[in-house]
Amino acid sequence: MGPMSANQLDRIPPAILIDDLTFHYPDQTELFAEFNLRVEAGQRFGLFGPNGAGKTTLMNLMTGLLTPTSGSIRLFGKDMQKHHLRINRLFGFVPQDFAFYQELSPVENLAFFGAWSGMTGAAIRRRTRELLEILGLAAVRHKKVQQFSGGMKRRVNLAIGVIHQPRLLFLDEPTVGVDVQTRHAIVNYLKQLNESGTTLIYTSHQLGEAEELCNMVAMIDEGRIIAYEALDSLLSKHRQDGLEGLFLELTGKNFRDHNV
Amino acid sequence: MYKLWATILKDVRVMRRDWLGLTFMFVMPVLLVLIVTGMQSGTFELVSKNKLPLLLCNKDTGAASLQFIRAVDTMGLFEVRQIPGTQNEEMIRERLYRKDALLAVVLPADFSAQVASRTRVLAGKALKSFGLDDSVSGGTVKTTGAPLTLYYHPVLQESFRRSAEGTLYSALQLVESRQLLKTLYFSINEKELPDTLGNELLSNREKISEIPVSRSNSRKSPTVTQHNVPAWTIFAMFFVVVSLGSGIVREKRSGSFIRLRTMPTSYVLTILSKQITYIGVTMIQTILVFAVGVWIFPLVGLPRLDLPDDWSGLVLISILCGWCAVSYAICVGVFADTEEQANGFGVISIVILAAIGGLMIPDFILTGPFRTATKFSPLHWCLDAYYSLFLEGGKLKDVWSNVLSLVLIIAGLQGIALWGLKRKNLI
């Protein structure tokens, strides 16, 4: 998968197209009503909002972990509900929680999750060597992950999400709780991935990191999109020099987690 | 296929690093089968093989008491331990309290005189009824006491006591019959009864034809090992619930499960992999416990395990029992929400199902609703199948009904697990 030209990108259906989405948790009021969103292929798309805004729910809907009450979600033109297993090959997911087996080594984890992503043994071994080298885990490849530091675990979490070289990568707070060096390494690697054609959907409260990584931004609050634009243009429109100021301007300064 | 292989490999690796689970699955059954069989061995041997110790205090000096003792000894139920005739009732009671034996018999000083007196009276009556002169009953001594006294310890079960009483009556009757025959013979023929004729008349009883109800017509008597090893092997198999049930819950609640659900593979593959891995575990458990029965038991003085002749039946039944145990553990894992629930419910339910399934108390001694309840325990059907092989000497062709029962139970448990997975939106 190499960098794509503008013409190529034009022919590719949007990475994500959400159309009239409605969703509510059982016995709760609607979180999303007639919600629409479009993410073009090749974008580094940041999804931001205060606690309880619906970011994680939206991420779970886009990855198929939750089923919409109505409306449709299409990934690269394919309906999520109708082509669930086929679509799942197209994307990778790096959840906020450590989503791997702590009792296993990075190599063993990648062997298992690689197979579940539909890769062959040879492809898994090749990609494992490559990823562990890039993410600085080669020296500890056979050690149990439970012995690792938080930063190393984050890198293992990321490696598993990208082992099958997905066209679309969902990242839910991928750098929470890591040191500056690890954050730097992860952000750099994500940029490399994007340059090689992977669309990124990113959500985080690390707004400085988001500014560095994202070129397109959507802010959501109470299940609605309150801003959707290229990052540079959004900042200049609101005369803000950073995402944090813009965030506070759009969502206010009150605590939002009282509803939890 | 590669996905399945990779999943099995992952499950084996995760399990290999779970030391607590491994201890429960492999060390616990070995200890359990050794301890329980060792403890039950004494009782079982008492019932099936050993003679019951009997203290015998002979205060008599006549010939009849010696004949009686010989007759009791010949009958084979008791290990007769003679104690001095000078001992009084208090001393005998003390010996029973000390559990030197659970039974004691005292032959009174006039035992032979009593026997002689009773037989003379009976002989006189018989001679009269034959139309002959009663030349024997004159001069009989009137006796009031019982011919013998039986003391027993209250811990002795009623059935044992009745059996002991019956044997003592038989011995007494034998002595009296011999005496009666001698008296009658002498009265009619005026000469002594020849020993050969006496023996022929009294001891030449018709043999009862004994046929063991065994599929192989084997006369091997079941030992405590043949009972316990299959039973505790099944218990061990079902104890995989500790590792497998809680493993499923742990996986469901972990972040890795979230990731698995976003991948292009069905969670059914995970369940399938766990089944294959843990059926492998139950097979290792079976080999381990059977090996202990065959090689370790004789070293610690327990009867050796005799494996059934038909290996195909043994292998098939073992796999089905293992699969049944794994299916049950998967059900527990699917429906439990926390590891505590899976472990708590899993362990307690296995102990209850083992109890009602006949692993701890043989089901044939249960009655009424308890007997019906055994049918609801999957462990009962597993045990039933193993007993067909281990105790009844069955072969593969004899255990098809057991195979069918186990297949139906497995299908039922798998169906419940799949329904649970769907209901919880896991597949």
- H/E element sequence of chain B: HHEHEHEHEHHHHHHHHHHH
Q: In what order do the strands lie side by side in the largest sheet of chain A?
A: 6-7-8-3-9-10
**Strand residue percentage of chain A:** 15-25%
The structure class of chain B reads mainly alpha
With helices defined by DSSP (H or I, 4 residues minimum), what is the helix count of chain B?
Answer: 16
Question: Measured on Cα atoms, how large is the radius of gyration of chain B?
Answer: 32 Å
Q: Which residues of chain B form runs of ≥5 with pLDDT under 50?
A: none
User: Termini distance of chain B?
Assistant: 19 Å
Structure annotation, total helices of chain A: 10
Q: What fraction of the residues of chain B are assigned to beta strands by DSSP?
A: 5-15%
Q: Indicate the low-confidence ranges of chain A by residue numbers.
A: none
Q: Main beta sheet of chain A, described?
A: 6 strands, mixed
* SS content category of chain A: alpha/beta
* Radius of gyration of chain A, CA atoms, in whole angstroms: 18 Å
Number of strands of chain B: 4
Strands side by side in the biggest sheet of chain B? 2-1-3-4
Helix content of chain B: 55-70%
